[in-house]
Amino acid sequence: MKRSVKSVQRQDLLKSICFLGPSFLGVLLFFILPFGVVVYYSLIKSPMVHDFVFLDNFISIIKNTAFQTAAKNTASFSLIAVPLAVVLGLLLALMLECRIPGKSQFRTFFLSPMMVPIASIVLIWRVMFHEHGVINELTAVFGAGAIDWFNSDYSMVVVISLFLWKNLGYNMILFMAALSNVPQELLEVADVEGAKSPYKFFAIKLRYLSPTVLFVTILSLINSFKVFREVYLLSGSHPYESLYMLQHFMNNTFNNLDYQKLSAAAVLLAVAMVIIIAVLFYIEDKFGKDVEG
């Protein structure tokens, strides 16, 4: 009997290895090993001279003015765009949960950006925010002067509006799905007890929404780091200073074949992302316990 149990366990193990093997090999070949190479390049003098320099590349990159500007702009964009994407997505989901006229059309309006190619979205924003575009034509009616949106202090506002328009629909759908899983029995009991709407939201709904809030925050954070694509199509590889992101720095560094700077910047970005996500998990865990308690 013991032998048969052991043989069954061995067969299950072999089956698990067979099923997980291709995925593990893919992750190993295309993610783990390349990242290991990046870490190695960040610790040596150059691809031709493999002298170990330890933290010299990281110190050099931190002191680099272009990197400092890119890191500051990326952090500013994420600190503004990510909370807005989460909060507005949740508000839209709560609004669509109510009985309002034109709910279907409203939902379609916010979901339509998901079906539009990024090149078309960028073209729309170019037409709207060009120096001789639609926005300036509208503001000229009220006597305002023309603004070169992509080369002014308002450039960050333009990119944030593009980011929100493109991502709010997806966040809204995720929150709507989470709201549909909130136990109605708890809400009915709260109504019987005379609970107000704010209490029902923070004490009941938000408890069940906290994992989705965490997921949407991480997803929005990742998307905010990928905004380089839109900015690059709008302004090229050297945009206005407030739009110069970390991805611009890495792309330009790669074009200059400066692999040490590129590798050090990539490692710093990866470490920062891991720390931020760990903090978000910690906050979600503490918040969930507090609400449950």
- How many domain regions? 1
CATH class placement = Mainly Alpha
Report on the biggest sheet.
none
In the CATH hierarchy, what is the architecture at level 2?
A: Orthogonal Bundle
Structural class: mainly alpha
Strand content: under 5%
Report the CATH superfamily: MetI-like
What is the molecular shape? flat
State the end-to-end distance. 47 Å
- Low-pLDDT windows of residues: none
Average pLDDT reading: 85
CATH topology description: MetI-like fold
Helical residues, percent: over 70%
Query: Radius of gyration over alpha carbons?
Result: 25 Å
Number of beta-strand segments: 0
What features would you describe in this structure?
The protein has 293 residues and is mostly helical. It has one domain: MetI-like (MetI-like fold), CATH 1.10.3720.10. The chain is built from twelve helices and no strands. The chain has helices spanning 2-42, 56-63, 65-97, 103-111, 118-129, 134-141, 155-180, 184-192, 197-225, 228-235, 246-255, 259-292. α1 (2-42) crosses α12 (259-292) and α2 crosses α12 (259-292). The longest helix is centred in the N-terminal third of the chain and has 41 residues, at 2-42. 22% of the residues are buried.
